[in-house]
Design goal:
Blueprint: E1 5-10, E2 13-18, E3 21-25, E4 31-33, E5 39-44, E6 48-50, H1 52-61, E7 64-68, E8 75-78, H2 86-97, H3 99-114, H4 124-146, H5 165-187, H6 204-210, H7 218-226, H8 233-248, H9 250-263
Parallel strand pairs: 1-5, 2-6, 5-7
Antiparallel strand pairs: 2-3, 3-4, 7-8
Helix pairs in contact: 2-3, 3-9, 4-7, 5-6, 5-7, 5-8, 5-9, 7-8
């Protein structure tokens, strides 16, 4: 996963497997080969159809398929919900359910995000409030640096065009970051829904981890692009994110960051009970990452 290209977006095409290759076929019948095994995440925009064979191949190689809305800023579904490692899921759940352990993880996330130790004797709720204030200040500083008018983080997830250009750029950029972060979370064997700061959402843990990188990567880029008043902000942002993720080798950093923040809880991965029964039919050897299900 760490060595893959971050993502590609596909719209208005039929995705299928032809002659063993993962291809996109346009309305004229022209095929475009996609090296599915070297891509972390494929974002499927409106107008895209995917065959059973293509979905199966993507699952086998551990490439996440994500169905997204217009401009890629709404996530409808992903091809592999949940994690595929019981020990990692139990470990993550234990950390999230124990208030003391959860606070340790949240404090570590704060330290990674802001480069300094979290204030002592603060609850998760208090740290969330401090974090929110710092984030709002960072938005204001970026707007001033790039000469962009800033009225706050305002957007309507049901109507993409309601937001101003800078909010459209930020939404498109964070959607890209969430896509590859979810792919990394799944590849590492964890559950996207079991968060520590964010809760109650299908991608709560994805948001937690993406926030560690957001202001070092996609948000400054979004402001920089918005400053030029682009006619197609979502397209420019997606292309910029793709190139930036590749140049910075962001995927190489995400999985170690996940392990780093969870290790702050200072507990070990649970071992299976001695009386547990192995599967009657062992899983086939997977050619994906350890957190992806095999194709068997």
């Amino acid at each position: 996963m760490k060595d893959r290209v971050s993502m590609i977006f596909i719209e208005y095409g039929q995705i299928d497997v032809k002659d063993g290759a993962f291809v996109v076929i346009d309305k004229t019948g022209v095929r475009t080969h996609i090296p599915v095994g070297s891509v972390a995440c494929i974002m499927l925009e409106p107008g895209t159809r995917v065959s059973h064979a293509a979905t199966k191949l993507a699952a086998q190689v551990g490439t996440l398929l994500v169905w997204v809305g217009e401009a890629g800023v709404r996530v409808y579904a992903s091809g592999q919900p949940g994690g595929a490692r019981a020990d990692r899921l139990l470990y993550q759940a234990k950390l999230a359910l124990d208030d003391t352990l959860r606070l340790k993880v949240v404090r570590k996330m704060y330290e990674v995000r802001f480069g300094e130790e979290a204030p002592k004797r603060r609850s998760v709720e208090q740290l969330r409030g401090i974090e929110g204030a710092r984030v709002r200040k960072m938005y204001q500083l970026l707007a001033k640096r790039h000469g962009v008018q800033w009225h706050g983080r305002r957007y309507d997830p049901k109507d993409w065009k309601k937001g101003d250009v800078v909010n459209q750029c930020i939404s498109a950029a964070t959607a890209c970051l969430y896509g590859i972060t979810e792919a990394a979370v799944l590849a590492a064997g964890y559950a996207p829904a079991v968060g520590f700061i964010h809760t109650g959402k299908p991608l709560s843990f994805v948001y937690d981890i993406a926030d560690l990188f957001k202001f070092d990567t996609v948000v400054p880029m979004a402001f920089k692009i918005a400053a030029h008043s682009p006619s197609h902000p979502d397209k420019e942002v997606r292309h910029a994110c793709r190139d930036a993720f590749r140049e910075s080798r962001l995927l190489k950093k995400i999985i170690p960051a996940i392990e780093d923040v969870l290790s702050a809880g200072e507990i070990e991965l649970p071992k299976p009970p001695e009386e547990s029964v192995p599967p009657a039919i062992p899983n086939a050897e997977s050619i994906g990452d350890e957190g992806h299900r095999s194709g068997g």
